[in-house]
Amino acid sequence: MYTLEPRRLVVPALAALSLLTPALALAEEVPVLNSGDTAWMLTATALVLFMTIPGLALFYGGMVRAKLVDLVIGLRVTEEQETEGLDLSQHGERGYIL
Q1: What is the per-residue pLDDT for 79?
Q2: Cα(50)–Cα(45) distance, rounded to whole angstroms?
């Protein structure tokens, strides 16, 4: 029959005690709900939710505006102009002499 010796219990007991000691030392009181904190969190949440729709509108509005400028003004050049060089095709002169 196997019997536990007190010496064998010392190491596990010290290990358990070392794991529980920081929790006991850092234990604080249970936080109490504060009406001011709760009101501020609700207000901040409402502000973020209200700013979501205008933020998305401005973001997508900027993308639409850029696409419309691209379509109206024609910011793209032909492949021939790209190969020839934009300085020569747009301004009639060479920008770099190689």
Answers
A1: 78
A2: 9
Q: What are phi and psi of 85, to 5 degrees?
A: 115, 135
Residue 86 near residue 76, CB atoms below 8 Å: no
- The answer to whether the beta carbons of residues 60 and 68 sit under 8 Å apart is no
Q: How far apart, in whole angstroms, are the C-alpha atoms of residue 95 and residue 98?
A: 10
- Contact 85/97 with Cβ under 8 angstroms? no
Encoded amino acid at 86, one letter? L
Question: Do 54 and 48 contact (CB within 8 A), yes or no?
Answer: no
- Is residue 88 a contact partner of residue 77, using CB atoms and an 8 Å limit? no
* Separation CA 8–CA 3 (nearest Å): 10
- According to DSSP H, which parts of the chain are helical? 6-25, 35-69, 79-84, 86-91
Q: Which residue has the tokens 């901040």?
A: 44
Instruction: Tell me the pLDDT tens digit for each residue of 63-80.
Output: 998 888 877 776 677 777
Q: Coil, strand, or helix at residue 33?
A: coil
